[in-house]
Amino acid sequence: MGNSSSVIAQLEEERSTLMGDLELAEDTRKARYIKESEIEIAEELPSDLDIQNVILDHDGTISTLREGWEIVMHQVMMEVICGSNLDKLTTDEYNLISKKCEKFIDDTTGIQTIIQMQGLRELVLEEGLVPKEKVKTAAEYKAIYLDRLMVSVNDRIKRFERGERNIYDFTIQGATELLKALRDRGLILYLASGTDEENVVFEANALGYGDAFNGGIRGSKGNEIGDAKKIVIDRIIDEGNCVGNNLMVIGDGPVEIIEGRKVGALCIGVASDEIRRHGINYSKRTQG
Ligand SMILES: [Mg+2]
């Protein structure tokens, strides 16, 4: 039993070999900040920086359109694990599975959706409430989850378009100003997301900053199995001749930070609080 934890264990191992100072990540007492700011210095800046390219992550770094995905994922997990038994379970049975889902989401936050869905498939099999022949593939579960998530994303975009919400309701504070400041310095900006490319393009344009990305907006293509975000970042690094000291990576997820570190880029981890849309989210700080 406990196969879903094998997915997590494997990820933890990769994370710990490629991340920076883990002691610093786990212990905020060791943090050093730029004076009068919440900007933390994890490592000294290299002296030979010649930044020309900037790769920015989208969700949680610029956009908060997908904030609240945990709630959507929890609903979908409960439905697919319980199947037609969803309404027949006792309160205790229901709560026990609900707690497992909450813990699973907590443990897998920050990793790519397809791996989360592999874990979900393992949970469906472990719980055994759905007949084996009805258990779907991770890619199928991912499609169900993303369809559901898009309902909330599209609703938010419609509210924005109708003027009921403004740009600051759906972006991290200062993010759009940062894009402008980077462009004013003549840098090439790439937007990188593990989300399907057409959705990323649509969301960035709907919020009005899509054209800031003169290097392009890149997302996942088709149903690539594997780490969509990693594939996208590696593609940008290859095509844009981004190497070491000419590249800066800005993101709130471990994948972009790990891939950036692999090529020696200057990496800026954004431990963003997507609900307040300013300040630090300490659980993200530990991940990145
Ligand atoms: Mg992100």
Descriptive terms for the model:
single chain, 288 residues, alpha/beta, Rossmann fold, 5-stranded parallel beta sheet, 11 helices, globular, binds magnesium ion
What can you see in these coordinates?
The protein has two domains: 3-65 and 169-287, Rossmann fold, CATH 3.40.50.1000; 69-161. 48% of the residues lie in helices and 10% in strands. The chain has helices at residues 3-18, 22-26, 69-82, 91-108, 113-127, 138-161, 175-184, 197-206, 228-239, 254-262, 282-287, and strands at residues 53-57, 188-196, 216-220, 247-251, 266-269. The structure holds magnesium ion. Magnesium ion is lined by residues 57, 59-61, 251-253.
CATH superfamily of the largest domain: HAD superfamily/HAD-like
- Mean pLDDT, to the nearest integer, reads 89
Quote the CATH topology of the largest domain: Rossmann fold
| Name of the CATH architecture of the largest domain | 3-Layer(aba) Sandwich
Q: Based on helices, strands and strand pairing, what is the structural class?
A: alpha/beta
Number of helices: 11
Number of domains: 2
The fraction of residues assigned to DSSP E strands is: 5-15%
**CATH class assignment of the largest domain:** Alpha Beta
DSSP strand tally: 5
Percent range for helical residues?
40-55%
Compute the gyration radius: what is it?
Answer: 20 Å
